[in-house]
From TrEMBL, chains A, B:
Gene3D superfamilies: GntR ligand-binding domain-like, Winged helix-like DNA-binding domain superfamily/Winged helix DNA-binding domain. This is Transcriptional regulator, GntR family. Pfam families: FCD (PF07729), GntR (PF00392). Residues 157-284 form the GntR C-terminal domain. The keyword Transcription applies. InterPro entries: GntR_C (IPR011711), TF_FadR/GntR_C (IPR008920), Tscrpt_reg_HTH_GntR (IPR000524), WH-like_DNA-bd_sf (IPR036388), WH_DNA-bd_sf (IPR036390). GO terms for molecular function: DNA binding; DNA-binding transcription factor activity. The keyword RNA-binding does not apply. Keywords: DNA-binding, Transcription, Transcription regulation. SMART domains: FCD. PANTHER family: HTH-TYPE TRANSCRIPTIONAL REGULATOR LGOR-RELATED (PTHR43537:SF51), TRANSCRIPTIONAL REGULATOR, GNTR FAMILY (PTHR43537).
Length: 296, 296
DNA sequence: AAAATGTTCTTTATTAGTAAAGAACCGAAT
DNA sequence: ATTCGGTTCTTTACTAATAAAGAACATTTT
């Protein structure tokens, strides 16, 4: 056997979502146009069209591609089947590590992990290699992978590194004359106010906004090494949020308010205040991260 | 087929080097002791002993392992065969990239690279994945690896990041009360003086000493993220040294003298001077790196 | 002539199978 | 009794084979 057609299935689902915006009798664009839309090759587009014709959604004769009926929920492939294996592996791996609360020192076997996560072995391998620099796992030459555990020490070192790098990035942001940054800040203010206004449990959108806010800061450094570290932080912090739900609402709202303080100080150009609000925020973030570990 | 016995061959070579220190008629230690010495499993040790007996170097009967004759140069396996594939792959890959002077945008194909470097495909794969965060290569989903090239921009970003992190590490070193650090510094002074005294072309030892010196500094931060970045720097700088040989002697001696200044300021406890000498050194390092690119 | 389609050729990702290296167990010798 | 050696069992790493996905070329239609 070979690979599992994830690209094809993802293509079908994207195509179905597009077809839902049309009316029966409408014509689809050219294969090349669809390839652009589905972000894939024409080869895959043709496979998708053939599939759509087979299930009777469209009539396909040469360059005529006519929509017969609107897509039905059952036409879609289930989400996991239509996710790229790399993304799937990462999601499931992190969730597994967090949920099963494995003890530090646990040995991870590629084949075993692959079976547990239901993803191909090479993907697990790639994932583990990519993850090693994060410091959560380690490999002994010619031996196996071991879990290092999310210790207080780890959290402290991460927070230290973050303070150093994000602090520098923020300093550059303040020094920058780029109007684009102010525009992004204004947009951030809007989004923060909007999220704070919603009293409900819509805090599920918080991690994404939090990551976006910090990405704006890191981006100001215009340095690929900064950006890379930002990604790591957001990954670890994101899964930390997912894991530690206690006081979530209170904690997230506090963070949003701290963000707003920083944003507003930037917008009015009060650099001293901005700097101070930023340091405060990083301190809060550090405390939250460290606290979440000791309460495990 | 399967794997290429690198561990075994490396074991044989290490064992031969050990035997060269003995006299014919001497007895070898137990299998467990040899396993400790060769840094490998007893299974491999027994394979090595069998090999040594086969080529008539030792007589092996149960627990009696008697040296028959001293090892000959021809008994050793050639170095590349006896190197762990991961190290071999890394060495050859970097050398290949630097030497063949590939244009940015060049497509790297795993199988092709594996053939060129004469290393197994999985090793190339692992190497490329590990290398991606260094920013020299990139992967497009479902497509191939492309070389980003060692640009001036890259060098600048690397130097910026280095100044930030190593600067912080050095500040912690100065603040530290740890006597171990002073001891390491004294040892560094000795090694630097020794290398500077040798007028000859023994500068081949410079990269190792340079890396060791900076490792002492990064280690003072006691932060795994600092250490990891230090590794990257040393890797890139090392290969930059190897590639750019012009003015090598002059450049290396200058660097050694700058190191000495820093070391001595630390030893006498003059923090202001140490700090200043360190900043100067980082500036020199940056200039050297950037210059080496523009002269390609 | 231009654009879209049909066809063919590469390249990549995955699985299965096999040999090397590691680990554990048990019996023998000091 | 304890250390050492023989044996067996696991686990890992590599090769090879195969199907999916991408890319290029040729052909057809407007």
């Amino acid at each position: 056997m070979s690979r599992g057609q994830q690209t094809f299935k993802l293509g079908v689902n994207t195509a179905l979502a597009h077809l839902a915006t049309l009316q029966p009798g409408d014509r689809l664009g050219s294969e090349a146009a669809l390839a652009e839309l589905l972000q894939t090759s024409r080869t895959t587009v043709r496979a998708v069209l053939k599939h759509l014709a087979d299930i009777g959604l469209i009539e396909w004769l040469g360059r005529d591609k006519i929509l017969r009926r609107l897509p039905d929920p059952v036409d879609f492939f289930p989400k996991p089947e239509a996710t790229l294996p790399a993304d799937l592996a990462e999601e499931r791996f992190l969730e597994w590590v967090m949920r099963s609360d494995l003890a530090p020192g646990t040995v991870l076997r590629e084949v075993e992990v692959a079976r547990i996560l239901s993803v191909p072995v090479p993907q697990v391998r790639e994932l583990l290699i990519r993850f090693e620099p994060n410091g959560l796992i380690e490999k002994n030459t010619h031996k196996n992978w071991v879990l290092n555990g999310f210790t207080a020490q780890f959290a402290t070192e991460l927070a230290d590194m973050r303070a150093l790098i994000e602090g520098e990035a923020f300093a550059r942001l303040l020094a920058s004359q780029d109007a684009g940054i102010l525009r992004q800040m204004a947009e951030m203010e809007r989004l923060h106010i909007a999220l704070l206004a919603r009293e409900d449990a819509a805090m599920s959108e918080f991690p994404a906004l939090d990551a976006a806010f910090h990405r704006v800061i890191f981006a100001a450094a215009q340095n690929r090494f900064f950006d890379e570290f930002a990604q790591r932080i957001s990954l670890i912090v994101h899964y930390h949020y997912q894991w530690n739900k206690c006081d979530e609402q209170v904690r997230n709202r506090a963070a949003l308010r701290e963000h707003l303080q920083i944003i507003r100080a930037c917008l009015v150009g009060d650099k001293a205040l901005a700097r101070q609000a930023f340091v405060t925020h990083l301190e809060t973030a550090r405390r939250t991260l460290v606290a979440s570990i000791s309460t495990r």
